[in-house]
Design the sequence.
């Protein structure tokens, strides 16, 4: 069964659920379509697909079949003829774990935003905005130039990104704001109530600081100083083991080692933090704080009803400006 999940101009994301022994035709909504199976064994035509691989199919769609004894879930992503599709993250450079997400990026002419369903994370990036971020030396863009892997790139967007990237003269302001974000994420009101989100952003923050220091915490993890490897491992593991205490201990040690103290008290409101980051002119970090506000509002609303949402759509998550 194929179900459309989102449809924007030039973009369609669908979900394919195929029972054991079933066969189905998957439509191609746009000029280019990719299928991402969450389990091994799905077959397109006569070709078995790898788990979490990004597999391109023809412009006329494809017939898929499931000869396994279990249900297979897959994502179907259709994009326009001039759009680029890249893989990045641990699955792109072979350092993934069984629970790791699959990160893909679509470079197109629409707005920058994101979509998550289960283990699939799709970053939709506006082409012009991404190139501008390259020219200003944004650290996440530097990582993309080093660690992303183009799957389809008809217009040469990846080569253009690499050519336009220029390192900033200084990352001091970025590091200072990122350290303040880490203080916010370590507060019990954040880490205890929104653990998955907070741990994910703590991992992003750590990698941002390390990149600003000249390290490569993605593809050259073994070359990091031992204390930095330890803290990255602790925070990454906490996403799956839920051992937040150990991760918090290492993060606080990292902040102490850099001589960082919070600018606001532990009783400051999320609005106070949002104003602080806005004044620091850090739009991406400000967007993280805004997302925290939305998560908190959603949690309070759900608690007021006291009815758990177990529908399939409950696993879907959208967020605003992407980049980290």
Sequence:
């Amino acid at each position: 069964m194929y179900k459309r999940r989102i449809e924007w101009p030039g973009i369609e994301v669908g979900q394919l659920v195929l029972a054991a022994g079933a066969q189905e035709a998957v439509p191609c909504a746009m000029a280019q379509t990719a299928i991402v199976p969450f389990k091994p064994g799905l077959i397109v035509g006569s070709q078995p697909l790898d788990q979490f691989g990004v597999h391109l199919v023809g412009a006329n769609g494809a017939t898929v079949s499931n000869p396994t004894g279990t249900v297979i879930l897959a994502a179907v992503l259709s994009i326009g003829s001039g759009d680029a599709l890249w893989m990045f993250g641990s699955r792109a450079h072979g350092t993934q774990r069984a629970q790791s997400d699959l990160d893909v990026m679509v470079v197109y002419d629409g707005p920058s935003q994101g979509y998550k369903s289960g283990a699939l994370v799709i970053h939709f990036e506006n082409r012009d905005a991404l190139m501008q971020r390259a020219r200003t030396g944004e650290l996440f863009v530097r990582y993309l130039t080093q660690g992303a892997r183009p799957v389809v790139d008809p217009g040469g967007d990846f080569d253009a990104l690499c050519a336009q990237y220029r390192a900033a003269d200084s990352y001091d302001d970025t590091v200072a704001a990122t350290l303040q974000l880490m203080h916010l994420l370590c507060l019990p009101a954040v880490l205890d109530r929104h653990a998955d989100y907070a741990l994910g952003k703590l991992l992003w923050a750590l990698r941002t600081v390390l990149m600003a220091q000249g390290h490569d915490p993605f593809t050259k993890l073994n070359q990091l100083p031992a204390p930095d490897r330890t803290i990255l491992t602790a925070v990454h593991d906490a996403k799956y083991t839920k051992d937040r205490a150990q991760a918090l201990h290492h993060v606080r040690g990292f902040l102490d080692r850099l001589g960082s103290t919070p600018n606001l008290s532990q009783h400051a409101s999320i609005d106070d933090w949002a104003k602080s980051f806005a004044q620091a002119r850090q739009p991406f970090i400000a967007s993280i704080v805004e997302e925290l506000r939305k998560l908190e509002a959603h949690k309070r609303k759900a608690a007021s009803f006291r009815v758990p949402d177990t529908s399939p759509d409950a696993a879907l998550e959208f967020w605003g400006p992407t980049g980290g």
Notes: The first helix runs from residue 127 to 135. The chain is about 40% helix and 25% strand. The two ends are 33 Å apart (CA to CA). Residues 172-307 form one domain.
